[in-house]
Amino acid sequence: MSDRTPAPSPARRTVLRGSLAASTAALTVGGGAFASPALALSGRPSAAWGVQTGDVTAHSGLVWVRSDRPARMIVETSSGESFRRVRRHYGPLLGPGTDFTGTTALRGLPAGEQVHYRVTLADPDDPRRTGEPVTGTFRTAPERRRDGVRFLWSGDIAGQGWGINPDIGGFRAYEEMRRLDPDFFLCSGDTIYADGVIQPSVTLPDGRIWRNVTTPEKSKVAETLDEYRGNFRYNLLDHNVRAFNAQVPSIVQWDDHEVRNNWYPGQILDDPRYTEKDVDVLAARASRAFGEYFPVSTLHARGAERRMHRVVRYGPLLDVFVLDMRSYRNANSPGRQADDTTGILGAEQLEWLKRELSRSRAVWKVIAADMPLGLVVTDGATDFEAVAQGDPGAPLGRELQIAELLRFIKHRRITGTLWLTADVHYTSAQHYAPERAAFQDFAPFWEFVSGPLAAGGFPANRLDGTFGPERVFVRAPERANLSPMESPQYFGEVDIDGGSGELTVRLRAEGGTVLFSKVLQPGRVGQ
């Protein structure tokens, strides 16, 4: 392992050249114009919104694309960027029912190899009429432990009114992450801000002007299905995001802002910005749009199997347990219940997580949480939004469910658990230990926070002592909602060495700085 920044391979750089067409459309940016994806060949289907891959394992993965009109999706894969020998995968017919998006499953891929792919869109009435192919690449998960794994994580994108600013190069952190060439990116939620309006310009406290790319769907809070879709499209206007997506596969989860701030099932809104007051209606529309715009394996299942939470198995060193801390939670409250079986995960998801953790044979088990455990996140004057509720005593409310999970991990002697999250718009490292805690029937563990990736920065939240957290490191602004021009954006890096099995976490700031680093040893119940 090393702290040096790895350079992307020439093959990866080359395969991305020319993959995105030049624009002929324009969007408002302050008082000027900004190029958006446009047609590659007039009158033929265009895939100029780029490509994405998701939930990649040793032998499978998903490829995503969006067309500008009805089209048949065709994916060709090859071991080389020349595409001399290809394997063809026929995908779905793209139409208005999915906002012209589609996902194709790739199976039978070679493990631990670089896979090059190109997506072609064909006219469904005349397959000879095709658009310009869009290319991408990704690495499949290794089957051999000695190969090692390295990935990045962050969240919180286009929030608090800070959108795509062409004056600073758009979402610059994406380009920095792309150059690190990770195996994959874990997006820890708040992938959009459906409740966050993007104004053409914002005046900063020092008098500078922040200019935003704007679209009609970002001019109000999202309520309709088309408005939610427009929020997901907005991020794809950024050339950094499209280039990153074409090179780095993602594992994506959601949190609250994909629907609206601090939402929970059954909530009825008292917000004059919304004509639709039933959050369950909004959440259903947002979930549909999320599944259309991200390649998530379980969101393409049917019926009861369609869900956000899942396990992505990334070789013998790593399993990623993707949680949904939003869809099954109870209502936000003061959190003082002495009995709470619903909690933040719901009873069924908790049992699923315990079962899958006990089955895992991976050296490291990353629990991808869209909210932190011991950081106090409020919702109004009396209610709480995350797990902690500010009382450092015995577990109450949602803490009861987490206590049950931590006790289970200890008594089943499940090794190598690690919690990663975003949500609070700063970066920090917390170590949880029973000797500091009110609840002590658990093994020590670490929780690492990173973000925002392209949103406002906020001061650090206070800690709740129930599970004995110690803030080992924190970097956060002194005041609320600092723009990306005033405060760096943050993302984290996890590097698992194939020889020793050691896991190194690095908390990074935009600009190439490693702020904090921690090495964890494999095979331990607690760290």
3D architecture notes:
- This protein has 527 residues and is of the alpha+beta class.
- The chain has two domains: 50-140, Purple acid phosphatase-like, N-terminal (Immunoglobulin-like); 145-520, Alkaline phosphatase D (PhoD) (Purple Acid Phosphatase, chain A, domain 2), CATH 3.60.21.
- Helices cover 14% and strands 28% of the residues.
- The chain contains seven helices and 27 strands.
- A seven-stranded mixed sheet has the order 16-17-18-21-23-22-24, with helices on one face. A six-stranded mixed sheet has the order 15-12-11-25-26-27, with no helix packed on it. Strands 5, 6, 8, 9 and 10 form a five-stranded antiparallel sheet that branches.
- Helix 2 (172-180) runs parallel beside helix 4 (239-245).
- The protein is globular and about 70 Å long.
- Residues 1-26 and 31-36 have low confidence and may be disordered.
- Residues 157-507 form the PhoD-like phosphatase metallophosphatase domain.
